[in-house]
Amino acid sequence: MQSPARKQPQVIIVGAGFGGLEAAKKLACEDVRLTLIDRSNYHLFQPLLYQVATAALSPADIAAPVRAILSKCKNVEVILAEVESVDVEARQVRTKDRVFDYDYLILATGARHSYFGHDEWEKLAPGLKSLEDAVELRRRILLAFEYAEKIQDEAARKAAMTFVIIGGGPTGVEMAGAIAEISRYTLAKNFRHIDPSQARVILIEGAPCLLAAYPPDLSESARKQLLELGVEVRTNARATNITEEGVQVDGEFIPCRVKIWAAGNIASFVGKTLSVPVDRVGRVIVNDDLTISGHPEVQVIGDLANFSHQTGEPLPGISPVAMQQGRHAARNILRMIRGEKPKQFRYFDKGSMATIGRNKAVADLKFFHLSGRPAWLAWLFVHIIFLVGFRNRLLVLFQWAWAYLSFDKGARLITRNFQSEHRPPA
Amino acid sequence: MQSPARKQPQVIIVGAGFGGLEAAKKLACEDVRLTLIDRSNYHLFQPLLYQVATAALSPADIAAPVRAILSKCKNVEVILAEVESVDVEARQVRTKDRVFDYDYLILATGARHSYFGHDEWEKLAPGLKSLEDAVELRRRILLAFEYAEKIQDEAARKAAMTFVIIGGGPTGVEMAGAIAEISRYTLAKNFRHIDPSQARVILIEGAPCLLAAYPPDLSESARKQLLELGVEVRTNARATNITEEGVQVDGEFIPCRVKIWAAGNIASFVGKTLSVPVDRVGRVIVNDDLTISGHPEVQVIGDLANFSHQTGEPLPGISPVAMQQGRHAARNILRMIRGEKPKQFRYFDKGSMATIGRNKAVADLKFFHLSGRPAWLAWLFVHIIFLVGFRNRLLVLFQWAWAYLSFDKGARLITRNFQSEHRPPA
Predict the structure, then answer these.
(1) pLDDT at residue number B188
(2) Which of A9, A336, A372, B20 is deepest in the core (most CB within 10 A)?
(3) How far does the CA of residue A290 sit from the closest CA of chain B (Å)?
(4) pLDDT at A387
């Protein structure tokens, strides 16, 4: 295949999320040199992150080392580094201690939480984007019950057993459902001075309904299923302030120890270093073939891209979009190497689903809508199929089966940071 | 059973390690009020900690929530708190925000690493006592290979691929064997610029042989099995200094990025607050019935106790001693409640085993010694049997079977502390 006279073109992919990894798999073993750069050494299966945050799964169950996934193809190099900027003129990607040259670039650095200008809320109400976030949320949720068990002040105990989730999108709905479930079932009989099933779980959403991207009947069904679990759903409600003590929701102050942020995203800062237009939340405005203006060798995909050529609206920041764009960008590069033009991207929407709890979910499969147990089974099936790596799939299946049969959650660990312990009290 | 006229005696157990948990299980559902205090919410199966540090198992695989273990007996209360001191005169256990009264106390707060006065070495060469330690070591070991892959300076690359383990007891032997294995097998084909199987693993021991507590033939066998894995074993060698850059071993400076401390223990500081004699490493000198002088209502067990009544030497800090003492202390309390005297403790030694790698181990079963595969199978069997909780046992068995068949390690995650990420570079 490879002509010794021609130097293989160098492709760089930044980001090993759903988009970047799909692109890398497509280009692995092709006639290119491929460098995949990510700041983590693993690909994270983000849709199950809320299960780590609620102690059902371990971090390693939903993460697979990128090196191992791509180890078979010798033309692929994986670099653990944080990209600081892209110089599109020089065709260079810069990290702290090294500069990488490229012929073709796929930028897939994703998004992080946005606190709408209230960065001070981040420590008070963590979001759920990374494994570190998930382990921190798990720690806070479990610690709240431990604190409630030993505290003797009634108001403090009530606040410790109140959980406020800000944002009624899929992450907010999943977290609310999962916290309600562990308090009603898993922890119910483990305490002596509190009844965990009395925990208040409050879901705050600014819009008139939950899951704004779903059809109205499914939004309504999600609300009903959450109410069945005892979650208080407040739509048309806005968190106007967050403090250690609680959350101000419009006129009412809700004392609570644990607050969870699921309300907004902002695109990775790397997009801004391309010197092309970005939208209000930092997403790079891409051409209809995923390239950027004036630089067909640079493609931007996934949560970092604003692709508005199909419906007039940007495509949503969900994994199917990122994966389809990843594969498309990889094929575009192979086309350009052959001297052809990059092709227009079109998103094929197979529908979406959100889970709420055991036997509780909604699924919008375009031609029909599912709720409750059928939706949950569909969700389970799809998520197991897509989990990266054979081993993870079996392990997760085993843990789910166990959790389903026993109501037990296996990963109820409160871990701290390294070296914050072992210290005699001062 | 319970006479309404008599108030149930209050028993406090501090520490949910092997000793404390065994005592708690024995007293659960007996006619006492039992409070178990620990600073973690889980019981840790410490003998498998090295497998978390080397990415074979996840933290949740070797830890079980204490509440769940003891949830069936209504007389047991579990408190997550760090004990600061014991007032034996007032019969009180003090934590930061609450004081607990007791009629009977079992103190089982264990031991931590000792750096022999060089506390500044702790950050440079972490030990392996807690889940946090294990995750930190896993991070350092995996990061070293990542760093070696991308660095271009040959000396720095060599240092990144050199691992020095200080201390040739069971932990040091296990860590050396496990690091050698992941570099020779698991990671071997995952890199492009380095050959992980060329990693140097150096085990330093001050004494003339490894595993000093084992019979000489097994010490020698352990050495040979480590050499087969390519580990450099240096006995009669002492680490005289540790810096970021490496370890000074007598006259030679060994440049290395990752250093692991497995050389010494010091008992928990809580023992010193009892106002009774402690030994050189802070262990409480106990009577032959595990009580302390003048206070038969206080018993000290496990790694915190110096029990020298059987052989003249203190019993070793291993789980069988702690478990037998835990059960004995619990029975002593039931005796004292009935008006009887506490009974003398005798340790029944069933032997001990240390693992080195796949098909590599040593087992001292008193009447016969095993090496290699038979020892490894014995080790595997015993450790699965003793792992707390049915679910953990199956999960671990599954992961071991997988690791054995595939040479893969499932938990190769480099995780950071919460909120040390998501930051654009300054």
Answers:
(1) 84
(2) B20
(3) 25
(4) 74
- Angle, vertex CA B176, rays to CA B172 and CA B178, nearest 5: 115
Residues of A in contact with B418 (CB under 8 A): 126, 132-133, 135-136, 417
- Which residues in chain A have their CB less than 8 angstroms from residue B150's CB? 79-81, 98
Cβ contact B42–A392 (<8 Å) = no
- Is some CB atom of chain A closer than 8 A to the CB atom of B394? yes
pLDDT band for B419, please (50, 70, 90 cuts).
Answer: very low
Cβ within 8 Å of residue A411, ≥6 positions away = A52, A55, A56, A57, A58, A138, B58, B59, B60
Measured CA distances, A414 to A395, B38, B172, B234 (Å): 22, 12, 27, 38
- Test mutation, B72, B129, B192, chain A, max A CBs within 10 A: B192
Residues 307..366 of B with a Cβ closer than 8 Å to A: which?
none
- B50-94 confidence digits (pLDDT tens): 999 998 888 988 888 999 889 888 999 999 999 999 999 999 999
**A153 near B CB under 8 A:** no
For B269, the closest chain A residue by CA position comes to A424
Please compute the mean of the pLDDT values over residues B322-334 and round it to a whole number. Answer: 97
User: What are the chain B neighbours of A391 within 8 Å (beta carbons)?
Assistant: 402, 406, 408, 410
Using a CB-CB cut-off of 8 Å, the residues of chain B touching A398 are 394-395, 398
DSSP A356-424: EETTEEEEE-SS-EEEHHHHHHHHHHHHHHHSSSHHHHHHHHHHHHHHHHH---S-------TTSSSPP
A174 is an active site residue: yes
Catalytic residues of B: 174
**Token reading at B267:** 């008992």
User: Which residue in the set A42, A98, A411 is minimally distant from B60, CB to CB?
Assistant: A411
Which single residue is written with the structure tokens 């009603």? A184
Catalogue the long-range contacts made by B87-91 (C-beta closer than 8 Å, 24 or more residues apart).
Answer: B87/B273, B88/B274, B88/B275, B88/B292, B88/B295, B88/B298, B91/B297
Query: Among residues 249-268 of chain A, which lie with CB inside 8 Å of chain B?
Result: none
Q: Check A22, A30, A136, A174 and give the catalytic one.
A: A174
Does residue B249 carry a pLDDT above 70? yes
The β-bridge partners of A17 are: none
B190 in contact with A at a CB cutoff of 8 Å? yes
B425/A96 Cβ within 8 A: yes
Residue A386 burial by Cβ neighbours in a 10 Å radius (0-12, 13-18, 19+): middle
**pLDDT tens track for A226-247:** 999 999 999 999 999 999 999 9
- Backbone phi, psi, residue A395, to 5°: -60, -45
**Region B29-52: what's the mean pLDDT?**
93
pTM of this structure? 0.89
SS3 A59: helix
Out of A59, A112, A191, the one facing B415 most closely (by C-beta) is A59
Q: Are A52 and A139 in contact (CB under 8 A)?
A: no
Query: Percent of chain B beyond pLDDT 90?
Result: 75
* Residue B395 to residue A399, Cβ atoms within 8 A: yes
Q: Provide the token pair at A395.
A: 């392990």
B415 contacts A131? CB cut-off 8 A: yes
* Nearest-10 crossing angle of helices B390-406, B372-386: 150
For the segment A133-186, what is each residue's pLDDT rounded down to a tens digit?
A: 999 999 999 999 999 999 989 999 999 999 999 999 999 999 999 999 999 988
Higher pLDDT, B411 or A296: A296
Which region, left, alpha or beta, applies to residue B168 given φ > 0 means left and ψ of -120 to 50 means alpha?
Answer: alpha
pLDDT score of A390: 61
